[in-house]
Amino acid sequence: MNTRDTATPAHDQHTGAATDDPVTITYEELDGARIAVVALNRPAKLNALTMATLRGLDAAAKSLRRDRDLRGVIFAGEGASFCAGLDFASVMKKPLDIVSAFAPNPLARDGANLFQRVCWEWRRLPAPVIAVVHGHCYGGGVQLALGADFRVTAADARWSVLETKWGLIPDMSGARTLADHVGAERARWLTMTGEELSGTEAVAAGLATETADSLDDAHARARDMLRQLIGRSPDQIAATKSLFNSAWRSPRATFRAERFQQAKLLVSENAARARAAGLKKRAPDFVSRGTLIFGRKKR
């Protein structure tokens, strides 16, 4: 995984990153806030997923999760496509790697394996994640995109739950995320048929959030969306993500999650700043995510 800081917007660099790493992270400043651009970087292979890519995505998500000053993430693909799914030719060369990656982690709270974790970790990331989709978005690519909070797609992108072509089902958290976004009935149809949708059709189906005319427009729109989110408390954003990840459990569990997240916000410095700014009708000045109100200096 390659990490670099740049003042140049990543949407001016989508012809391919100057590294052999299958996953890259580029940091930018957006309206004074720190954001990251995570890019799949196998453009010659349409960013098809290898074991190295999966490990790179896992490491990237874990690294970004520890960054309390991170305010947003754009998730994209270099070259002509977002992601064409699993690279079977590469992955099947080392079947023991597949067995290892497929095994659930008994120490994790959700027991996710590596394939599931690389998609679901973007939902657990406390900062908002926006996927920029263009070209092919097939199979595992769909599941990666659905792990983001929002998806801006080129109108002519091609989306398909392509696992059916190989006699398989989505197994990278897709059973949950597909049903979350399109409903169980449509999720069954797309999974059984592998029906291919354009970006415009993907928005109509609920797979994507909105369309853009071109890849550059999609990157620009993703940044516009992040600008809106950066204006909100980073702790409130993190609490919202956590709450909605668990909202479809029993009412008892959902209500418990609401109470827990709200209690944390009530003692957070950023919530206090948001309230003070709202009363004074000015823009809030937020601090690092997770800062508690206790012991703060009076202003």
UniProtKB/TrEMBL annotation:
Catalytic reactions on record: a (3S)-3-hydroxyacyl-CoA = a (2E)-enoyl-CoA + H2O; a 4-saturated-(3S)-3-hydroxyacyl-CoA = a (3E)-enoyl-CoA + H2O
The name this protein goes by in its record: Crotonase/enoyl-CoA hydratase family protein
Pathway per the UniProt entry: Lipid metabolism; fatty acid beta-oxidation
Entry similarity comment: Belongs to the enoyl-CoA hydratase/isomerase family.
Organism: Corynebacterium hansenii
CDD domains, per database record: crotonase-like
Keywords, comma-separated and alphabetical: Fatty acid metabolism, Isomerase, Lipid metabolism
Tagged with keyword Isomerase: yes
Function text: Could possibly oxidize fatty acids using specific components.
